[in-house]
């Protein structure tokens, strides 16, 4: 736990849930497995508790997560009629701005707010903050929360939690994995979750368009610092030419990181008025520290940020020079 006492915040959460009539849950922009998994798990738990729960999602759901049990229940921010919820629970979201402008307004107008997360850059933006930076995934934190509040899991909730832990650990490969991660995974498997379906959906359903985008972006690869840094780009034109969706660039940066000898992989994604940065490291580079220089954050081995201009060459120069400083230390 970062600062706030876990037990105190848990009892605060219990009171907040018990007394709330309407609850909204949301996560950050560009949903990944951990935030969709954690929202699904929380949605399942709150509906089991017969709470009037609204699942808010900014973006489209990636095809690989459509198997999640409550994924069809989500509402886009435009569909939300309520001006204010009794309780707003943000999951897997390091800061309020990551909710996106529309959802941030709903968060700010809610009577009580909760932040459950595992990012070490989390800035404790809610009334109740349950942040465990040792946890591999928000889904791991949620498992603890449910267990401590004596809330019973079911197969759907277990499926959702397993998804978040599997994706945020790169299938149990990252340094963040601890004995407890496997203990939790073992508990979740006892609910007879469909292990084969989950893995096939998440890891073995890449579309042809997404594959074409991967191939195209790999053609842009550049190496720096004796091949310890590898950088690739995805342009708006690449998306047009391949017919891929913007979320189809997920997974490219991990592919580049996996090259022998590469310590850190960088992906620069061109947007209309910005460049999005994604970084992944293998052993020692602190991606979160570098990303924080570019309006972002995240974890030691996986982080992201934003350049508020769309000059890819300038972004490349700036991120490479920030990374070179890290290597020199
Ligand atoms: P990705 O590269 O997949 O976008 O993000 C990798 C990790 O860094 C994720 O855990 C994500 O939540 C975090 N991250 C990505 N972009 C940002 C950002 O702009 N701000 C913060 N605080 N975290 C980010
Ligand atoms: Mn996460």
Shape: globular
What's the number of helices?
12
Low-confidence stretches: none
- Can you identify the CATH superfamily of the largest domain? inorganic pyrophosphatase (n-terminal core)
**Helicity range:** 25-40%
User: How are strands sequenced across the largest beta sheet?
Assistant: 6-7-8-9-11-10
Concise overview:
The chain is an alpha/beta fold and 329 residues long. The protein has helices spanning 6-19, 33-48, 101-109, 138-148, 155-168, 179-189, 195-203, 208-218, 236-242, 252-257, 287-291, 312-328; strands at 22-26, 52-56, 87-91, 112-117, 128-131, 222-224, 229-234, 264-270, 275-281, 297-298, 302-307.
Topology:
Elements: H1 6-19, E1 22-26, H2 33-48, E2 52-56, E3 87-91, H3 101-109, E4 112-117, E5 128-131, H4 138-148, H5 155-168, H6 179-189, H7 195-203, H8 208-218, E6 222-224, E7 229-234, H9 236-242, H10 252-257, E8 264-270, E9 275-281, H11 287-291, E10 297-298, E11 302-307, H12 312-328
Parallel strand pairs: 1-2, 1-3, 3-4, 4-5, 7-8
Antiparallel strand pairs: 6-7, 8-9, 9-11, 10-11
The protein binds guanosine-5'-monophosphate and manganese (II) ion.
Residues 34, 92, 118, 137-138, 168 line the site of manganese (II) ion.
Record keyword descriptors for this entry.
single chain, 329 residues, alpha/beta, inorganic pyrophosphatase (n-terminal core), Diaminopimelate Epimerase, Chain A, domain 1, 2 domains, 6-stranded mixed β-sheet, 5-stranded parallel β-sheet, 12 helices, 40% helix, binds guanosine-5'-monophosphate, binds manganese (II) ion
């Amino acid at each position: 736990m970062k600062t706030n006492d876990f037990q105190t915040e848990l009892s605060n959460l219990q009171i907040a849930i018990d007394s709330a009539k309407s609850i909204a849950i949301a996560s950050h922009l560009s949903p990944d497995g951990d935030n969709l998994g954690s929202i699904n798990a929380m949605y399942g738990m709150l509906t089991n508790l017969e709470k009037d729960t609204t699942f808010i999602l900014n973006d489209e759901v990636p095809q690989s997560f459509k198997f999640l049990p409550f994924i069809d229940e989500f509402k886009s921010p435009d569909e939300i009629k309520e001006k204010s919820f009794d309780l707003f629970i943000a999951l897997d979201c390091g800061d309020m701005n990551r909710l996106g402008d529309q959802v941030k307004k709903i968060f700010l107008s809610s009577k009580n707010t909760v932040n459950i997360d595992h990012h070490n850059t989390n800035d404790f933006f809610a009334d109740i903050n349950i942040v465990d930076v040792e946890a591999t995934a928000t889904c791991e934190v949620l498992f603890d929360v449910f267990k401590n509040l004596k809330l019973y899991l079911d197969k759907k909730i277990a499926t959702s939690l397993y998804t978040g832990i599997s994706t945020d650990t790169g299938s149990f490969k990252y340094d963040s994995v601890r004995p407890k991660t496997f203990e939790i995974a073992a508990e979740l498997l006892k609910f007879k979750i469909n292990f084969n379906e989950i893995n096939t959906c998440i890891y073995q359903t890449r579309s042809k368009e997404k594959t074409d985008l991967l191939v195209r972006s790999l053609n842009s690869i550049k190496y720096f610092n004796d091949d310890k840094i590898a950088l690739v780009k995805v342009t708006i034109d690449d998306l047009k030419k391949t017919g891929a969706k913007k979320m189809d660039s997920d997974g490219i940066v991990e592919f580049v990181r996996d090259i022998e000898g590469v310590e850190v992989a960088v992906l620069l994604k061109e947007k209309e008025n910005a460049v999005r940065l994604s970084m992944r490291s293998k052993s020692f580079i602190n991606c979160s520290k570098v990303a924080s220089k570019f309006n972002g954050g995240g974890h030691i081995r996986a982080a992201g940020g934003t350049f508020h201009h769309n000059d890819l060459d300038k972004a490349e120069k700036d991120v490479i020079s920030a990374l070179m400083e890290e290597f020199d230390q």
